[in-house]
Structures are given as C-alpha cells and as structure tokens.
Design a protein that fits this description.
The protein has 357 residues and is of the alpha+beta class. 42% of the residues lie in helices and 17% in strands. The structure holds dinuclear copper ion. Belongs to the cytochrome c oxidase subunit 2 family.
Length: 357
Amino acid sequence: MGIGLWSLFGQAQAAWDVNMRAGVTDVSRSVFDLHMAIFWICVVIGALVFGVMIYSMIAHRRSKRLHSANFHENTKVEVLWTVIPLLILVGMAVPATRTLIHIYDPTESDVDIQITGYQWKWHYKYLGEDVEFFSNLTTPRDQINNLAPKGEHYLLEVDEPLVIPTGAKVRFLITAADVIHSWWVPELAVKKDAIPGFINESWTRVEEPGIYRGQCTELCGKDHGFMPVVVDVRSPEDYAAWLGEKKAEAAKLAELTSKEWTLDELVARGEKVYQTNCVACHQASGEGMPPTFPALKGSQIVTQDVEAHINIVVNGKPGTSMAAFGKQLSEVDLAAVITYERNAWGNDTGEMVTPKD
Ligand code: CUA
C-alpha cells in the first residue's frame, strides 16, 4: 500500500503530506474544497462531543460523590438534538450536491476517448479519429523489485501515455475486457470503475500541460499494481500534431494490411522482421541454439502447423524465453515473418500467410 502510493505520485512527498490533493482541474478543486469543508465540520463536531465527554468524566468523577440526575423527557433538548444535526446535514448536502452537479456535466465534449482495462494494461481509443493503442508498462520489473524493498521511489512508466489537449472537455467512456479495473488519476479527480459489459462515463478539462499519473485502483489480479495510468496533457497545437502523426501511422498500417502482397515482397519484409526480433536466439540459419533455443529449420510447427506457429509468436511460450510478440508486431509483420520462416525452412511450396489470416 505504502509503496503503491509513493510510486503513484512519483516524487518525494513530505512524510506528513497525507491529505488529498487539490488537483489541477475545476472539478478536482471543488472535490477538494468539499472534502476540506466536511473535514472541518467533522473536526468541530468531534471536538465538541469529546470535549463534553471528557469534561463530564472529570467534573463528575467518583470522588466528587455527586448524585446522578434523574429526570424524564425534555422536549427542548430533544428538539435541539434533532434540529442541529438536521441543519448540519443540510449544510453539508448543499455543497456536496453542487459538486455532484459539477461532476455530472452532460454538455457536449470536444474529445471522446474510450478506455478499456485489460489484465494488465490500458487501451485507449480516440472515437471518430481512427486512433487507438495499448499503454504498456515499460519500467523494468527488476528495477521495481530492487527499489521497492528499500522504500525507494520509482516511477511506473508506459510506452504510450494517453495524450489530451489543454482547455478541451475530454470525455472518457470507461469499460473493461476481462475483469473489473478502475481508471484513476488523482490530479484530475477522475476515478471510475471499468466493468466488462458496462460503459461508465467521466470527463476532465485540464488547463495546464503536464504529465499526470494514476493507477488501476480495483484489485484485478496478479499485476494489478503494475497497470499505471499516464496522462500527457499538451497544448492544442502539440495535441493536433501528435494526433496527426498517430493518424498517419494508422493509415500507413491500414494501407499495408489491405495491400496485395506478392510472396517475394512478404518474404523480404519477413526477413527484416526476423533479423530484428528472432535472430538473436534462433540464428540467421534457423538452427537455433538447442536445447534452450530450438531450431526452426525442419521444425514440425514451422513446416506444418501455421496456427500453432502464429500462436507462439503472438503469445510466447510460458516457462521458456520465447516472448510474446503480439503487441510489438503489426498484422503485416506477423504474417511476413511467418511466411518468411515457412519459406526458408518450411514446406517446399513456400505457401503465403496473408495479413488477413
Ligand atoms: Cu486493473 Cu487493477
């Protein structure tokens, strides 16, 4: 718990800085003000109640030998202890309702983002923009394992943060693909459960560019503590430039996927993918380094079983050094590398695996 909180805020906090944060949005500030108002009301009530209690214990202690009071109902007192709490509750309900109305602002948004929780990463989809990606943890686990026991701070970084523009109303539509997660960024005062089959809605409007951090906050399995949220808020110009780049990337990928590939082209591309990702263990010759890194040349899976072959490349092989490449390779690169391997060491026909398989 302690480690989780430290890592969340990512920087050294004074040991007594235990209060909630005011955050960086109108909503987060009004949530903070409400929190402080209710806090002080509770402090005053607590001081009064405990004050009277302690006073009574001392003033009426046994050595005083006072006679206990003996009386029946007292209308005045009963009315008072009904009316005063009622006034206090109404006094708290007014600002609480005002804050709730602020949070549930139904007006049109400028940017809509679908957020999906997975075990254990977030997926962001910019609705109407054809831009979507996973946000994967990149902080090495051994670094975390080294620092955490010493109580040192570490940052949970991701490969692709959620990027949003300043000044715009950004709507989040939050759901999950497997189990219940929860998307939480304290500085934005956004915290919503991500539930499979449901869409929860929230929004934010951030004025200052910056990196704002959060974490999954619903226990969701083994790596619950390692699915950080990183929000990168940029000026509208920087955001537009980023979005343009992302769209160009997506368009290029779509073009590659729908293109009619010839066998030679695909094999050539696959060879490059193989050189980058596979050669270190399986060798350029495909002979591997048995027994740790099996030979692909002449292997049953490479020659005959395309499905099993794809499955291993995408998901890796648990208990071995074979990593999952599903997140790193596009559909085209996946088809290319498998076609290359089949062609180099597989059946003589050199059958092609198309990106749409
Ligand atoms: Cu996802 Cu906890």
